[in-house]
Design goal:
single chain; 273 residues; five-stranded mixed beta sheet; 8 helices; globular
Length: 273
């Protein structure tokens, strides 16, 4: 379904995990972000892009390489792909492809398109790296922590932030990479959102916001959770650790796994034997 729409930005939200796929339309290009989940949902996004693109090139930007964010790669063979250097060099490409295949099998979904990990055409290697298409300027910022290959996008003329699996309105931080990197990415986000013009924040899951104050609150929300978990882990307070798991709004086997990853990485980075 369409979660949000204005003249330049359309955000499609999947029925699964409140996952957002974004299409940005400028006078120079079409930017597609993380098309996902179900084949019918991806087809709607593709059809929409075909209806609006005219003669403009399509750029397919991946916020990171988790399988739910790259599952729609096949639908845009004509696009120029954008991703971080760590996405380009991802060490588990075959594992991610296997998870896509298993997702289709688990849900009895017939899928005839080739399933491949994205090949990246425009590789982002440093913070603030820019790419310009006509009058459209894209700023990219490396955002490790959730995963090592995370990448923020700021669209200069529209003042739009796309943050991948950070700054959700409801989802707690999930640390598959590094807690310290996650803290650094939150600090980077705070500086960028405070110092740059702002009109819209689009996270990978949940609601978009047009409020800079709300965006800053989301950063504080993530920092607060990580700090409370770090303190509980350092104090070996198992009751507090257990209570923090209950703060996930949709408790499931997946959120249990995420909580365990968070605790494991906290212990690895902040506890010394």
């Amino acid at each position: 379904m369409i979660l949000f729409k204005n003249e330049q930005v359309t955000v499609f939200q999947s029925a699964l995990f409140q996952t957002n796929s974004t299409v940005v339309e400028t006078e120079d290009c079409i930017i597609v972000v993380d098309p996902t989940w179900l084949p019918s949902e991806i087809n709607v996004i593709r059809k929409y892009v075909d209806e609006i693109k005219k003669e403009r090139p399509i750029y397919l930007y991946f916020t990171h390489g988790d399988f739910d964010h790259v599952i729609g790669y096949h639908a845009f063979p004509d696009a120029i792909t954008i991703g971080s250097i760590n996405l380009h060099n991802h060490p588990e490409k075959d594992i991610k492809v296997g998870k896509i295949k298993q997702f289709y099998l688990d849900h009895y979904i017939q899928h005839t398109e080739p399933i491949r990990f994205p090949e990246i055409d425009l590789i982002i290697t440093e913070d603030g790296q820019t790419f310009k298409v006509g009058n459209t300027t894209l700023f990219f910022y490396l955002s490790p922590g959730h995963t090592k290959d995370g990448l923020f996008l700021y669209i200069d003329q529209l003042d739009v932030w796309i943050t991948g699996d950070y700054l959700s309105d409801f989802e707690l931080p999930i640390v598959f990479d590094s807690v310290k990197s996650y803290y650094e990415t939150l600090e980077k986000a705070s500086e960028l959102i405070t110092n740059k013009e702002f009109s819209l924040l689009i996270p990978g899951h949940g609601k978009v916001t047009d409020s800079k104050e709300d965006a800053i609150k989301r950063i504080s929300f993530a920092n607060d959770y990580l700090t409370r978990l770090r303190q509980a882990v350092q104090m070996e307070d198992e009751e507090a650790i257990s209570l923090l798991e209950k703060e996930f709004l949709f408790p499931s086997a997946f959120t249990k796994f995420c909580h365990e990853c968070n605790v494991k990485n906290m212990r690895r980075e902040y506890c010394h034997s």
